[in-house]
Amino acid sequence: MATTSTETRLGMGATPHEAGTTFRVWAPHADQVAVAGDFNDWSKTANPLNREDAGYWAVDLPDAQIGHEYRYVITNGDQELWRIDPYARGVTGVSGNAVVVNPGYQWREAAFEMPAWNKLVLYELHIGTFNDPRGEQPGDLDGVIAKLPYLRELGINAIQLMPTMEFPGDLSWGYNPSHPFAIENAYGGTETFKEFVQKAHEHGIAVIFDAIYNHFGPSELDLWRFDGWAEGDWGGIYFYNDWRAETPWGDTRPDYGRPEVCQYLRDNAMFWLKEYQVDGLRWDGTAFIRNAKGNDNDPDNDIAEGWQLMQWVNDEMDADQPWKISIAEDLKDNPWINRDTGAGGAGFDAQWDRTFAHTIRQIVIAPDDAARDMDTVAGMLTGRYGDDAFARIIFTEAHDSVSEGQARVPEEIWPGNAGSWFSKKRSTLGALLALTAPGIPMIFQGQEFLEDEWFRDTDPLDWSRCNTYRGILQLYRDMIHLRRNWFDTTRGLCGQHIEVYHVNNADKLLAFHRWEAGGPRDSVVVVANLANRSYTDYTLGFPAAGAWQVRLNSDWEGYDAEFGNTPGYDTVAYEGTHDGQPCYGDVGIGPYSVLVLSQDAAQE
Q1: For 274-324, where are the E strands, in sequence order?
Q2: Long-range contacts made by residues 416-422, C-beta under 8 angstroms, separation at least 24?
Q3: Is the pTM of this model over 0.85?
């Protein structure tokens, strides 16, 4: 018969220690709770838990060891409920059993520091479709590890993972989590995820975890009526039991008004940051945490306690691990998301800029050059949330924008012919605007080698396109390196400042100045041509006199044999006011192209 100790350890779920395992669970409406598992021949009576304060139950079992499977047996009146632990660190499957997991991992020394946010370049990645070298679905974390050298060479220094919490089946985007503390088994599970973080750090790459706190499930969800209690048709202790439970994904919004549920969500956030050593969190759909309908300016549907949850977690991150980044996918362009909690804000470090993404996508997708409004482009380049240019994530492709009725940008430009000249030129034009504008740029997996069609969890990336479009891949690599000031010639692309000083709406051309402190190897001039014509001697203003070197010309034939190779020559700026700048000079630029220029030294 299994034995029981009265000496329980702190912590929720299964906490293994040198003398056994402590089990603790929150079930306030239970009449009795027991734990059944490998350690007691799955007896539902051998190991009852002891009632603690506030609806918690706990027991210490010397016979329960790492690797044992278990479930809680909850009695509520005539209900007998066999439940998977809400804090389960591992499960055999969505409908299987919880597993006692070894929380230890032999982390190795890695000369890694979280990159400064003004130097971050994010790569959004879906584990199941990113790399499947086995030729079957889905891909896994080992497949991602194999591609870390590729991402490092590309210049990526932060991976933005799509969700990895255990979900039903093997194929999913991941936004339907069933077990929030467990890594999806199809991806490789707990140990493999930690090894992935370790290897990413060894390659100088941060890992940002996608946290889903606006809903759970909604299917195959043991949290639903966990201890047998519910009001009406609602979900019980972990969820609102009224209209506030309703979300676009099911009636499973967590009850942020219950301290125990808020503690559960806070514990989850800290779990990934501390035990798994991830470098930040990306919160999914925060508009639906703070408002029942996902709205702005809608006080009747605001959820104050959801706002308070976000503040709590962000404050704790700032106090305990301030170098880690907290990102909101709010999609409402609400500046209060980024403001300090002391001023009443939610305290996020950055948020996805949906307006930039939607607007720039539409501008480069439009077939008619006349539809490209340069004042609109200028507004997207200069937009920001508050005083920090790097409080916004900017992109032209992300999982939502290339699915569900939308396709990859090259595919949108010419459906069925994503490898066309127009698709190559205008899709890279949009990406280069994102990579040169103030903000934290992000690309979506495969964007760098012109992945076509649309994103779906059954279609892995076609890595042969790295060879087919190796020039386009090099274009992305070259621009990312400049964006990170890889060669100490483009420091201004990491700076807060931008001035869009030339806007020619008739010819669809603009120029802007980026700088940190200004001067040689800092000030950067970016010229963008959004029309299907080239120039050999277009006169522009420059912020300083002297020689300006072309660091990137996206019309170079080395990027694609079909490109025009319009000379984007080094130029000299002479004193004389032009475009509101103190100097002027001529540039050459090809159709749908971008030039990046900077100086090596001041004028003698």
Answers
A1: 280-283
A2: 418/450, 418/452, 418/453, 419/450, 419/452, 419/468, 419/469, 421/562, 422/592
A3: yes
Look at residue 604 in the predicted model and tell me its pLDDT. 45
What was the pLDDT predicted at 115?
96
- Cα–Cα distance for residue pair 154/597, rounded to 1 Å: 21
Domain count, the chain: 2
Quote the CA–CA distance of 268 and 89 in Å, as a whole number: 10
Dihedral of CA atoms 53, 55, 56, 61 in degrees, nearest 10, equals 100
- Please tell me whether residue 119 adopts helix, strand or coil conformation: helix
Cα 344 to the chain's mean position, in Å? 24
CA dist., res. 129 & res. 136, Å (int):
10
Is residue 461 a part of any domain in this protein? no
H/E stretch holding 465: helix 465-468
Query: What is the per-residue pLDDT for 335?
Result: 96
The enclosing H or E element of 550 equals strand 546-553
The token pair at 212 is 């889903």
Domain membership flag for residue 334: no
Q: Is 90 exceeded by the pLDDT of residue 1? A: no
Q: How far apart are CA 497 and CA 518, in angstroms?
A: 9
Where b means 16+ CB within 10 Å and e means fewer, 162-181 reads: bbbbbbbeeebbbbbbbbbb
Return mean pLDDT, the chain.
96
Of 65, 99, 133, the position where a domain reaches its end is 99
pLDDT digits (tens, 9 = 90+) for 307-360: 999 999 999 999 999 999 999 999 999 999 999 999 999 999 999 999 999 999
Give the structural domain span for 564.
Answer: 491-598
Q: Which neighbouring-strand residues pair with 24?
A: 13, 58
* Tens digit of each residue's pLDDT (9 = 90 or more) over 480-503: 999 999 999 999 999 999 999 999
In a domain, 248, yes or no: no
Q: The tokens 């996918």 sit on which residue?
A: 329
Q: How many CB atoms lie within 10 A of CB 361?
A: 21
pLDDT at residue 423 is higher than 90:
yes
447 contacts 123 by C-beta, under 8 angstroms = no
The answer to whether residue 449 scores a pLDDT higher than 60 is: yes
Locate 370 and state its tokens: 């006349």
Q: Are 587 and 527 in contact (CB under 8 A)?
A: yes
Handedness of CA 529, 331, 212, 437 (dihedral sign): positive
Q: Which of 32, 64, 99 corresponds to the end of one domain?
A: 99
What's the rounded Cα separation, in Å, for the pair 150 and 477? 10
Using CA atoms, how far apart are residues 365 and 556, in angstroms rounded to an integer? Answer: 22
Go through the chain and tell me how many residues it has.
Answer: 604
CATH of the domain at 513: 2.60.40.1180
Residue 252 domain-assigned (yes or no)? no
Residue 38 sits in a domain of what CATH number?
Answer: 2.60.40.10
Which residues, other chains included, contact 408 with Cβ-Cβ below 8 Å and sequence gap of 6+?
397, 402, 418, 427, 446, 447, 451, 452, 453, 454, 455
Measured in whole angstroms, the distance separating CA 509 from the mean position of its chain's CA atoms is: 32
Question: What's the pLDDT at 104?
Answer: 86
What pLDDT sits at residue 3? 54
525's tokens: 């001039």
Q: How confident is the model at residue 43 (pLDDT cuts 50, 70, 90)?
A: very high
Q: Minimal CA–CA distance to 70: which of 35, 43, 23?
A: 35
